[in-house]
Amino acid sequence: MDWRKILIYALMAVAVLGVAYLSWLMILDKMSYDLYTNEKEGISMKYPKGWKVTPYPNTGAIVVMVKPKENPLVLFQANWNISATRLPEPLTLDQYVKASNAQVQFMFKDAQATAYPVRLSGHDGRKIVYISADPEGMVILNYVFIYKGVAYNIMYIDSKDAYLDPKKSKAVTDVIHSLKVKF
Is the N end or the C end of the chain the one with fewer CB atoms within 10 Å? Predict the structure, then answer.
């Protein structure tokens, strides 16, 4: 028995299984997300299949993506929204985060905020996590970066329970990492 041949066949089998597994993961990923693209704004981002997409709602956002209600008793629907704001004066990222934080804290007085550095579409940014003190409260994830005098905000809002669910937090990570802003 030639051990070299057996080893080569075993390695080939592992490689074929690895390619098949990666292909399956890519198919599964494509089945669970759609892609939002806005050529005018130069933005694209994945979002969960089945969510309602409203471009340019009256809120001043570029787009809002809303999770469908699981049942009629659901009062709050998880959502993503993307906005781009031309800044009237030059601001550093930290200055903008401070101003943005003041607005969110004004609307949600009980929310505790924590900021983390992140890379968003190739730019230094911040992930600001607002967690409501209310036990049934919500979580707001605000991803921010500034480029050429425009502040980009990508915000995700959901219940605290959903935020703590590892499967849902992975989906949030998948979505934000898919963000592409083309200048």
Answer: N
Domains of the chain, first to last: 3-181 (3.40.1000.10)
Is residue 10 predicted with pLDDT exceeding 80? no
- Distance in angstroms (rounded) separating the CA atoms of residues 49 and 29: 10
Q: List the one residue out of 97, 52, 81, 110 whose CA is nearest residue 175.
A: 81
Longest dimension (CA), the chain: 77
Phi, psi of 21 (to 5 degrees): -65, -45
Distance separating alpha carbons of residues 28 and 167, to the nearest angstrom = 14
Closest CA to 125 of 144, 106, 151: 144
Q: Please report, for residues 44, 58, 165, the alpha-carbon distance to residue 90 in angstroms, rounded to integers and kept in the order given.
A: 26, 26, 38
